[in-house]
Design a protein that fits this description.
This protein is α/β, with parallel strands linked by helices. The protein folds into 3 domains: 15-96, no CATH class; 102-370, Alkaline Phosphatase, subunit A, CATH 3.40.720; 404-485, no CATH class. It contains 15 helices and 13 strands. It has helices spanning 6-10, 58-66, 81-85, 92-96, 106-114, 129-138, 149-154, 161-167, 191-194, 200-210, 240-255, 340-348, 358-362, 404-417, 434-457, and strands at 28-30, 40-42, 116-118, 121-122, 172-176, 197-199, 216-219, 265-268, 311-314, 322-324, 336-337, 465-468, 482-485. The strands form 5 sheets. Strands 8-9-3-10 form a 4-stranded mixed sheet, covered by helices on one side. Helix 9 (191-194) links the parallel strand 5 and strand 6. Helix 14 runs parallel beside helix 15 (434-457). The relative contact order is 0.16.
């Protein structure tokens, strides 16, 4: 899911769940973090629809965490959220300091009561979406701290947990809606992996019903907000109620599957999206994953984590109302963060390959929570609460301009269909509306996957990377417009 902090989504659960480290109404930020006499903005439970997108780039997050460009404070003061939001429009400081009432996120409130919630899970890096998403499956962003055209075109080359699973004879699959962001990984563009991409609406429920889900499945959200198919990723300005319904659908599908007793569902958010969280970001003892330093002007060493984000662990092997705090190792400074996912997968499946980087070797793992019970629970709810009201006062606006993340997805789509070689590439997506971008992305993915299937049937090297030429005009032309590179 996208761009929400723990306190923003789950902080007010602590009113009835004091075992969860959330909000109590005393937390605040000043409009000027360095001026003790400036107005103070306290947290509230009045979160609702947020039309604009709070700052969540590297500079923004540095200011939000430390209140200035000085990052030496230990612990991090978490004092600059309101200050950073001050210049973003009327009411934005109050918006970023607000959290949802539990009845506004009823699916999450129910999951927290029925299964486990982490209250010490952090984004892997203090920057925006794409670097954090890369950590989920590879425990590094390969030096990325913001959008980089070369890497978006050629794909990120690092080893992933998908590679480790394949090396150990285990299966994986990606269930996507508009466009699979996992295709930012270069290795997943190989011909042999294209058959592992499935349209969520066509295949997820069927595979679950038939007991045919792979060992490791990634379920991607709908990233473009269209009238027929609204976005369900929670990214501002999308409707959080849509995200709640999506999570409910995924859970209920898995609950009805014959594979339920062998299932663990992890729900997490890439980063906090500029919304306040009171728990200090870990800034000491975080290992640099792979020795790669970020680009100028910051030359970031990837030795600090990002802000705390909502994360759930759902399984019939998990006791009710479990709260998972800090991990017990593997090192004294270890924390739960996105690299905890590949680290735990390695342990759960007893993978005989090495850790991906120093970061997942350090990250806390949660496999022991599946070992507390001797048998799976039989009382897990078959249905979650209905989400009856929308938090947005109007429907999708297909004529809206794109967010930074959506522009990155269109740049990915332009690689998939070959348009990245055109002179117009640097500006692609920046003049598109949401509706246009959705159609462009869906068409690019369809052409890319179709070309791959044709190449496989023609006997192409299944380990080849697929690159496309632009201006594909028909199904018959696809195979002639495909080139494979070793």
């Amino acid at each position: 899911m996208e761009n929400r902090s723990f306190d923003h989504i789950l902080g007010w659960l602590s009113r009835t769940r004091p075992d969860i480290d959330g909000l109590n109404g005393t937390q605040s930020n000043r409009l000027n973090a360095s001026d003790p006499s400036s107005p103070e903005i306290f947290v509230t439970d009045e979160a609702g629809y947020v039309d604009s997108d709070p700052g969540h780039g590297f500079e923004d997050i540095r200011e939000q965490i430390f209140g200035s460009a000085d990052t030496s404070a230990v612990p991090a003061p978490m004092s600059g959220f309101a200050q950073n939001a001050r210049g973003m429009g009327l009411g934005m400081p109050q918006n970023v300091m607000s959290g949802f009432k539990p009845d506004s996120v009823p699916v999450y409130a129910a999951l927290a009561d029925e299964f486990a919630v982490f209250d010490r899970w952090f984004a892997s890096v203090p920057t925006s979406t794409q670097p954090n998403r890369l950590y989920v499956h590879s425990a590094t962003s390969h030096g990325l701290t913001f959008n980089a055209r070369k890497d978006l075109i050629h794909g990120f080359p690092q080893k992933t947990i998908f590679d480790s699973l394949e090396e150990n004879g285990l299966s994986f699959g990606i269930y996507y809606q508009n466009i699979p962001a996992t295709l930012f990984y270069q290795s997943l563009r190989r011909l042999k992996h294209l058959v592992k991409f499935h349209q969520y609406s066509l295949k997820f429920k069927l595979h679950a019903k038939w007991g045919k889900l792979p060992n490791y499945a990634v379920i991607e959200q709908r990233y473009f907000d269209c009238e027929m198919f609204p976005a369900n990723d929670d990214h501002p300005s999308h409707d959080v109620a849509r995200g709640q319904r999506f999570v409910k659908e995924v859970y209920e599908t898995l609950r009805a599957s014959p594979q339920w007793n062998e299932t663990a569902l992890i729900i997490t958010y890439d980063e906090h999206g500029g919304f306040y969280d009171h728990v200090p970001t870990p800034v000491v003892g975080v290992p640099q994953p792979d020795g790669i330093v970020g680009p100028d002007p910051y030359y970031f060493k990837f030795d600090r984590l990002g802000v705390r984000v909502p994360t759930f662990l759902i399984s019939p092997w998990i006791e009710k109302r479990t709260v998972i705090h800090e991990p017990n190792g593997p090192q004294d400074t270890s924390q739960y963060e996105h690299s905890s996912i590949p680290a735990t997968v390695k342990k759960l499946f007893n993978l005989h390959t090495n850790f991906l980087t120093k970061r997942d070797a350090w990250a806390g793992t949660f496999e022991n929570y599946f070992k507390i019970r001797k048998t799976p629970r039989t009382d897990c709810p078959e249905k979650l609460p209905e989400v009856t009201k929308s938090l947005r006062p109007f429907g999708p606006k297909e004529d809206s301009s794109l967010s930074e993340f959506q522009v990155e997805l269109i740049q990915l789509a332009s690689q998939l269909n070959g348009d990245h070689v055109l002179n117009t590439y640097p500006d692609i997506g920046r003049t598109m509306t949401v509706g246009e971008a959705n159609r462009y992305a869906e068409d690019a993915v369809a052409r890319f996957l179709e070309a791959g299937r044709i190449a496989l049937r023609a006997g192409a090297n299944e380990s080849a990377l697929v690159t496309m030429r632009p201006a594909l005009t028909s199904r018959a032309a696809v195979s002639s417009d495909l080139s494979s590179e070793l």
